[in-house]
Amino acid sequence: MDMTWFDEMEGRIPTGGARTRFAPSPTGYMHVGNLRTALYTWLIARSLGGKFILRIEDTDQGRLVEGAVDIIYKTLRDCGLTWDEGPDVGGPVGPYIQTQRRDLYGRYAHLLVEKGAAYYCFCEKAESEEDSGDFGRAADPCRDIPYAVAKARVDAGEPYVIRQKIPAGQTTFSDAIYGDITVDNADLDDQVLLKRDGLPTYNFANVIDDHLMGITHVVRGSEYLSSAPKYDLLYRAFGWAVPTYVHCSPVMRDAQNKMSKRHGDPSYEDLLAMGFLSQAVVNYVALLGWSPRGEYAETEFFTLEELVGVFDLHGISKSPAIFDLEKLKYFNAHYLRALAPQAFFDLARPYLEAAVHAPAIDLALVAPLVQPRCDTLLDIAPQVDFFDAVPEYDNELYCHKKMKTDQANSLEALGWVIPALEALPEWNFDAIHDCLIALAEAHELKNGRIMWPVRTALSGKAVTPGGAVELCHILGREETLKRLRAGVEHLS
RNA sequence: GGCCCGGUGGUCAAGCGGUUAAGACUCCGCCCUUUCACGGCGGCAACACGGGUUCGAGUCCCGUCCGGGUCACCA
């Protein structure tokens, strides 16, 4: 075999700093678990001053989904997970799409056969589940076909797959999270490396690509923990340096099931549609399975940049974590509140416009009222529905024990308020506020005795964003007086 | 079933042989207050179980139980 290609490939491998890769399969949406893996992978690279590479693993042609790669780009960009090399930006070790690297895998697979660490297998592809055609545990008869004989059959055009030849003995590999793990090689099977169609299996393509791309930290889900020893054997058979493995436990929907689209669990895109902010999702997800050590052990709010500074892969947890929407809401509420008023207004505007149609309402005045009262952007609409029209309500609403209000004294209070507000020279927050407070003082009453009936008549709701003064101000004098009079009517 | 991994409040989690076993979410109470929310204060609530090792064990060892992963020409 002409080996100049090998030297050429090996010669291109980057050396130096840390290099990590996120290698999703383009299936159409981003799982929360995937996003977390991407985040940790990115964080390892950035915290070490290294490179983050994006590679698309599309060897399963049957599962390709149109537009899926764009969703990956968008999600990563949204979250701030910038990549240094990838299909769109290129890089020194491309191409970054597996199907475009097809012949590479074949060459390495054949090389492995020559090295005696793999063999050609001519067994029929099994049709049924039971007869998988997979002998495993070194029982495949093809394993012992002399190389020259097998090679002749291959050259003659006979269909084949290439299988890894697991040696006898034990294999110990090391994982940054789980430590050293030793397995008996008898428990490992001669997995297929190159499929009948010439494409590599995931396990093989991964090893080849990670090596050729100079990946130093292989970050992936813990479901690959059991195939890690086979990876190790592959690296060793090629004589390559073994990367640092970082296996991450899964994100669960409950104690026994992973989060999954199939169970109706939200993907990243779904969370955005549910009114969550990507910074909140990133912050929450970062802490779902990882925690900072030392002086930051009690800190929970981190920007991406701050995470880069404190991230340490040793803080990654071994056990699975259950995704808790309530806690995500807490983070989201925090980020929503932390927004500058204008920034919040920009975000909230579409939701406000969809809920409030009365042209006289200044949404810029409504926004700051709902800002501290939202867990998600979807919480806006139900709070502001009364601006368009007062809903049906019961006079019981006027009765509030703590405010010491009942229907009779509410009617009385509204009777005082209406002329006072009619006479107000200026219609602004302070003027309205002082006017109503003065009214309470004049009658030697608690503020609530005046405020509660007013707010009730204006909104018809027990709970509103903002109190009586805010509502008067936003509704405007005309609408305020109209609703107040309607309240009097309602109570009479 | 074999092999591998895991197991601290309902949830996320500190803890690395000696702590009154942190903190956060949720829930409850109180304060603030023109409702609610925000904010502040306080409270409920945990080392799966059994054996060792040790002066001393959530922390180390063994077993049990429970949970997960994996055993594809999917990734």
Report what the structure shows.
The protein is mainly alpha-helical. The protein is built from 18 helices and 11 strands. The protein has helices spanning 4-11, 32-47, 68-79, 102-114, 147-155, 202-212, 228-238, 268-273, 278-286, 304-310, 325-338, 341-355, 363-370, 381-384, 407-422, 429-442, 447-459, 468-491, and strands at residues 19-22, 51-54, 118-121, 161-164, 170-175, 179-184, 192-194, 217-221, 244-248, 251-252, 321-322. The strands form 5 sheets. The chain has a 3-stranded antiparallel sheet with strand order 3-4-7. It has a two-stranded parallel ribbon with strand order 1-2. A two-stranded antiparallel sheet has the order 5-6. Helix 7 (228-238) links the parallel strand 8 (217-221) and strand 9 (244-248). Helix 9 crosses helix 11. It is elongated, with a radius of gyration of 33 Å. The structure holds one RNA strand of 75 nucleotides.
Can you lay out the helices and strands and say which pair or pack?
Elements: H1 4-11, E1 19-22, H2 32-47, E2 51-54, H3 68-79, H4 102-114, E3 118-121, H5 147-155, E4 161-164, E5 170-175, E6 179-184, E7 192-194, H6 202-212, E8 217-221, H7 228-238, E9 244-248, E10 251-252, H8 268-273, H9 278-286, H10 304-310, E11 321-322, H11 325-338, H12 341-355, H13 363-370, H14 381-384, H15 407-422, H16 429-442, H17 447-459, H18 468-491
Helix pairs in contact: 2-10, 9-11, 12-13, 15-16, 15-17, 15-18, 16-17, 16-18, 17-18
The protein binds one RNA strand of 75 nucleotides through strand 6, strand 7, helix 6, strand 11 and helix 11.
